[in-house]
Amino acid sequence: MRWVLVGASTIAGEWMVGAIRAVGDEVVAVVSGDLQRAKDFAAQHGIPHALTDEKAYPALGVDAVYISSTNEKHEASTLFAAAQGCHVLCEKPLATSLDAAIRMVRACRSAGVVMGTNHHLRHNGPHRTMREHLRAGTLGKVVAARMQHSVYLPAHLQGWRLDNPAAGGGVVLDIVVHNADSLAFLLGEYPVEVCAMVSNSGMAQGLEDNAMSVWRFASGITASSHQGFNTPYAATGLELHGTRASLHGNGMMSQQPSGDLVLNSERGSEVLPVQRANLYEVCLQEMHRAIRGEPHEMADGVAGAKSLAVALAVLESAHTGRQMAVADVDALLGN
Question: What is the CATH number of domain 2-117?
Answer without folding.
Answer: 3.40.50.720
